[in-house]
Amino acid sequence: MASSMEANFFILFLLVFCSSIHNIISTTTTDLISTNQFIIDGETIVSSGGTFELGFFSPSDSSNRYIGIWYKQILPHIQTVVWVANREKPLTNTSSVQLKVTKPGILALFNDKNETIWFTNTSRSVQNPVAVLLDSGNLVVKDANDNNPEDFLWQSFNFPTDTHLPDMKLGKNFKTGHEVYLSAWKSDNDPAPGEFTRNIDPTGYPQVLTKRGTDVLNRIGPWNGLRWSGAPIPLLTQSRLYTFQFIFNEEEVYYIFSLTNYSSVLSRIVITSNGDIERFMWVEQTKRWHSHYKLPADNCDTYRLCGEHGSCDLGTQPICGCLDKFVPKYPQQWEKGDWTTGCVRRTPLDCNREHVFIKYPGFKLPDTKHCQYNKTMTLEGCRQVCSTDCSCTAYSSLDISNGDKGCLLWFGELVDIRKLSERGQDIFIKMDYLEEESEAGSKRKKATILAVSFSLLMATILLILILLWYKRKKKKLKHREDFELPLFPLATITRATNNFSLNNKIGEGGFGPVYKGVLEEGQEIAVKRLSRTSMQGIDEYKNEVIYIAKLQHRNLVRLLGCCIQGEEKMLIYEYMPNNSLDSYIFDQTKNKLLDWPKRFNIINGIARGLLYLHQDSRLRIIHRDLKASNVLLDTEMNPKISDFGMARSVTGNEMGAKTRNVVGTHGYMSPEYAVDGMFSVKSDVFSFGVLVLEIVSGKKNRGFMHQDHNLNLLGHAWKLYKDDRSLELADEQLADSCNISQVLRSIQVGLLCVQQHPDDRPSMSSVVHMLANESLLPKAKEPGFFTERNIFDEGKSGSQTRSSKNEFTITMLDPR
Ligand SMILES: *[C@@H]1O[C@H](CO)[C@@H](O)[C@H](O)[C@H]1NC(C)=O
Ligand SMILES: *[C@@H]1O[C@H](CO)[C@@H](O)[C@H](O)[C@H]1NC(C)=O
Ligand SMILES: *[C@@H]1O[C@H](CO)[C@@H](O)[C@H](O)[C@H]1NC(C)=O
Ligand SMILES: *[C@@H]1O[C@H](CO)[C@@H](O)[C@H](O)[C@H]1NC(C)=O
Ligand SMILES: *[C@@H]1O[C@H](CO)[C@@H](O)[C@H](O)[C@H]1NC(C)=O
């Protein structure tokens, strides 16, 4: 048994080995086959620019031989086949097999018995036919002297297999009736057509469908002038690397994408043997295909998941809901999660009664299979047409690339709708006039309820404030210390901050408000004022003064001095006009200001600042509360680490310590620190890793939500990383500016930093090195804290936790 397996393996090995030997020894460097030559197994032709190669191949785990086209530059062991000729008729014996061109212009594959296994078709004949492999990956049969694409006798771009290459038209020619669509391989080792296809269905208004047999699996929606209505906007589809076109006229409908620079990027869309649509890009630095778009991306992509008039929204629980003003058709089934029956209007439409149109903003447009359209009509004209047609149920504009243009009309039920918010479109749905009226009435009611709740809330807050004030009165703070820092007189600070005017307040730090000020000599300062109610603040204040006064680095915020007078305690810093990092990366509009070069600079700056703390400063300092809101940005967007209230110094060779005072911020704390109070430079490295992933993705680790899984940002990043899909993590805003290899490198460094075991995490000096060099990075292991979102919300027995669910630094105190 074992020996026969070994023998099989050996044969397989020989086959693979022999075929690669063939490839190596083949000396053909031509890009064409003419009538007086042919190619046999082992020989290939290569496109003129060297991008593609055509020859015989065997899929993995198969000894069948096929004629195919693959990328020439990509290493043989990841041979990526983009087209197969005889996909349904494999050759099992390739001795004396020939691929040749015959008159009047046919490219054909003959087997050892001189039978035609596969051939191209032509309706014309030419004098001197040749088959040429173009650098686009298109294999064409044409007259040797005629390069006009219109005159090609045959081209493989008209008969794709599972791959959509740049410049290939996917769609339908209405004159000839010929349809160009993708069909998946049956399995990874059988290129025969499988069940899954992807095509542009021109019924109604054209849309792209993925089908299994005749069943629609998903629908990316009609083209809206910019993109497919239901398409996510992943990093690179927005990018300047690509251009997209959708052409729809009397003669043809097709979709085509092109590259702006063919020498820098290899890209393809493929329908996999299990029906996924995936767009890949080759990244030379990593020598891998990286996926940056996958359909279905989540459950909401499932066709008709929420039935008629149901809308899918990843942000809600459950994900299916009725459109506003619609109710479940069968409430009991709906409650049980059987959404297929869908929803109906609360007030049914009646043609004899008055109606209105209600705007539903931000949706993927419903199935357009039964739609009518007019490309020139205005939106108002569209409304009128829909209004006068009794069976019309909704309308929207056809093209939003330049304001609203054209008209799309729906008749009957609306299906396969999904909430997309800002990247979605507006659809106007016909509604009974009475429905709108009753809604207005209930709004008024709601407003009253809201007002009452608000008053109650205010009263509660007031009560709490009074209690706090009373408590404070009962306590006396006493504290004195000697500082080696410049002391500012209170009067100077009062003047600089306009008497702590509210207008000067720029934030609320861990232990009190922060004010902007201008000293008499014009220097701008930030004043951190210890709030008198804060008990905890005193220690932190002292701590901060002790540590930061001794530190000097361009990536650490600089302390200019302090001010102690009576009960007032203040720290004076250099002023950072751009506030903190979190106000940029997590903000829908301000994140545009941080392009990739800036973000990469920020990642590197934080790394250097932290390295200085850990190794290069006189004290070895563990920050313990590194997070986005503790990184300030100067005018040039250079990062400066701030807030040393929680910092601890470790001496000599000591790398860490244990504490019962676990302080830090949820989402940034390493497992060994949060759970056991073990802190070390490696717990800072963990926080740094979280920060890197947040900077790349523009999303917060804590509070991260994803429909497909219950993981936080770390878990999500890890999952994508394992699937080779790391690019999907990157913030959409980076599309135009990103350097793919830097993005991938940063993500991997981030994942290395958040590994479960402290010993696995790199030191900050390796981090700085890894970010700066193109060297190969180690593989990341599983991150710590990536599944349970709310490890603290449960509370931990035996420790007194004062944890808050919000963004603020939390402290777990031991009783003194
Ligand atoms: C392949 O075909 C050749 C010629 O027809 C024949 O000699 C050879 O035995 C065949 N090989 C196999 C494995 O069938
Ligand atoms: C193969 O068949 C064609 C006719 O179909 C003939 O012209 C050709 O000579 C044959 N080739 C061989 C090698 O027998
Ligand atoms: C070849 O073309 C002819 C006419 O152009 C057509 O009738 C025939 O079905 C085609 N054959 C194949 C295999 O496509
Ligand atoms: C295209 O990419 C190559 C390789 O990255 C680069 O050298 C070249 O300058 C680019 N051309 C344009 C027009 O951007
Ligand atoms: C589209 O609308 C325009 C203007 O409203 C009208 O003139 C034209 O006939 C319409 N086209 C079709 C095909 O209905």
TrEMBL record:
Name the principal localization, coarsely classed: membrane
Entry keyword Kinase: yes
Could you list this entry's UniProt keywords, alphabetically sorted: ATP-binding, Disulfide bond, Glycoprotein, Kinase, Membrane, Nucleotide-binding, Serine/threonine-protein kinase, Signal, Transferase, Transmembrane, Transmembrane helix
Q: Where is the composition biased (Polar residues)?
A: 797-809
Catalyzed reaction equations: L-threonyl-[protein] + ATP = O-phospho-L-threonyl-[protein] + ADP + H(+); L-seryl-[protein] + ATP = O-phospho-L-seryl-[protein] + ADP + H(+)
Give the enzyme class: transferase
- All copies of domain Apple, residue ranges: 351-432
| GO cellular component entries | membrane
Name the PROSITE patterns on file: BULB_LECTIN, PAN, PROTEIN_KINASE_DOM, PROTEIN_KINASE_ST
Q: What is its EC number?
A: 2.7.11.1
Signal sequence coordinates: 1-26
User: How does the UniProt record describe the way this protein sits in the membrane?
Assistant: Single-pass type I membrane protein
The name this protein carries in UniProt is Receptor-like serine/threonine-protein kinase
